[in-house]
Amino acid sequence: MIVVKNLEKHYKIAKRDPGLRGAIKSLFHRKFETKKAVKKINMHIKAGEMVGYIGANGAGKSTTIKMLTGILTPTSGEVKVNGIIPYENRQQNASHIGAVFGQRTQLFWDIPVRESYELLKHIYEIPQAQYEETLKEFVDVLHLEPLLGIPVRQLSLGQKMRCELAAAFLHRPKVVYLDEPTIGLDVAVKVRIRAFIKQMNARYGTTVLLTTHDMQDIEEICQRIIIIDDGSVIYDGSIQDIKSQFGDKRVIHFELEDAADSFVLPETISEVTEVLPRSDEDPHLVSLSFSNKNISGAEVIHTMMNHYSVADLTIADAKIETIVEEIYGRGMKKEVQHEEIH
Amino acid sequence: MRKYIEFARVQMQVHAAYSAWFWANTFSILLRMLVIYFFWKAVYSSRTEIEGLPFEGMITYIIIAMFLQMFVSGVGQELAHTIKDGNVAIELMRPYNLITRLVAMDLGDKVIHFVRGALPLSILAFIFMDITLPSTWQSGLLFLFSAFMGIWIGTFFDLLIAILAFWTINLWGLQVMKEAVISFFSGALVPLILFPEWFQTISLFLPFQAMVYVPVAIYTGILTGTEAWLALGSQIFWVVSLFVLLRILWSIAIKKVTIFGG
């Protein structure tokens, strides 16, 4: 359904020296810097698959999705969605896809939800009978009945998201791109939305590409995940595989009594554990990552207690979250080193 | 085609819903009409005609021009917003042409404005202020055609300016300037024959007079015969060239979005 081969996207970014002098200089002589947002990505997604597409902010997720929807032209490489090259036949591609962007609304702001759907019926040229049947089904599953008469701008975030989701699936698209569909929602709404996505996939065989930072979404909806970091695919496979591959990974967060600026790993465990990049928000926090095979959690804690006064600690278990955190962490480290070199 | 008709219909519905806005707008137009009427009454108190125009001719011109001006802007504001907040990307993911969609919505707006605002108010003006009908039925017909052209020229020009939002950070200043230039050069405030000769010559080569001045001058008999037909010809020229320019600029802008990411 989705075939991507050696896909690349480079942006040209105008670079200028700081300050007024730089601003004036840039008027006459502009320096450009090429940023490779996506580097030689390959993926093959079959019809009916539900794939989680994850990566840290700025890893290249949105750029890829934009190329798949046809609103961005690749620098090089090949994209085909449902046999169509999206950026060449944008409108033709548009009638087969649906999308939800958690941060933007696609419904029409001023008119009631029902009118929005009526309009979508005409936009996507949905036959009347099919439209009625689909809408009835969606209203049942997502509990939209009380919302249909309300203008979109008066809906709460959770209500709006349910309506958005129905809008994205209304024309029974073959592929649906969901970009953070559960951002900022409460647990009950999240559960309902996940159930709806799974139901659509089961009933209509809709192919779903989901990006999210909520690992619960991924674990419940997707069979397969693709992890992207710094523009390249670093993992593509089933969730089961990644769990068994990294399943022995553990992360323990230590809250130290003193600021952790001068923290040095105790020598006895320095061979088998790794300090994850620290956040600026909490100067007392130190996170250690290690493999269960090499050292037990108890031993790490014991060593730490001996060397530092620990106020509190949390053990992250081997959920997909931990694994991803670890992978992102490495990516960030790379970035830091990168900057130092410059 | 059907989807664009639906957009126009929905837009009419949206507008019909804002009744407080409608009454405020109607009230402000009424006030403007009164101010215009008494101003020109005072101007004419010591003379019978200005540049060959008697009071009736003048007030007819000014009022009709005022109504027409309300229709010569378009949905540029909306387009500029869409570009600015990045929603244009989502619009590009839909199976329709954004410009056509916006024009359809604009048409819906204009129909509602005409039916609820301009039509009843101009009837009111016709009864209570000394507004005259076109001198002949031919000039009346020609006026309708010419006004139609003028509205398209205004709509296209407005969209053209809005597309510049792809390149400039802030469009507000440009749009304010556009409004000022249009009020001045289009003849929406006073007939262009009141301006000096050189000014009239310049505006002859600009698209603005084709928006308001030409149709209203045909209505009031300022432009007749060959002059009127020539003016119509220039209107057709502007409609076609602005339309072509709009399409070209739009496809360049879309390329910019799809290649540089906005």
UniProtKB/TrEMBL annotation, chain A:
Q: Residues in domain ABC transporter?
A: 22-255
Output the Gene Ontology terms for molecular function. Answer: ATP binding
Instruction: List UniProt keywords, sorted A-Z.
Output: ATP-binding, Nucleotide-binding, Transport
KW Nucleotide-binding (keyword) present: yes
Q: Which Gene3D superfamilies match?
A: P-loop containing nucleotide triphosphate hydrolases
- Quick check: keyword NAD in the entry? no
Pfam entry (one): ABC_tran
**Which named protein is this?**
ATP-binding cassette domain-containing protein
Organism expressing this protein natively: Fictibacillus nanhaiensis
TrEMBL record, chain B:
**KW Membrane (keyword) present:** yes
Pfam hit, one:
ABC2_membrane_6
For this protein, the parts annotated as crossing the membrane are 20-40, 52-72, 111-129, 141-169, 175-195, 228-250
Write down the InterPro entries for this protein, in alphabetical order. Answer: ABC-2_transporter-like
Task: Identify the species of origin.
Answer: Fictibacillus nanhaiensis
Q: What is this protein called?
A: ABC-2 family transporter protein
Q: Which keywords belong to this entry? A: Membrane, Transmembrane, Transmembrane helix
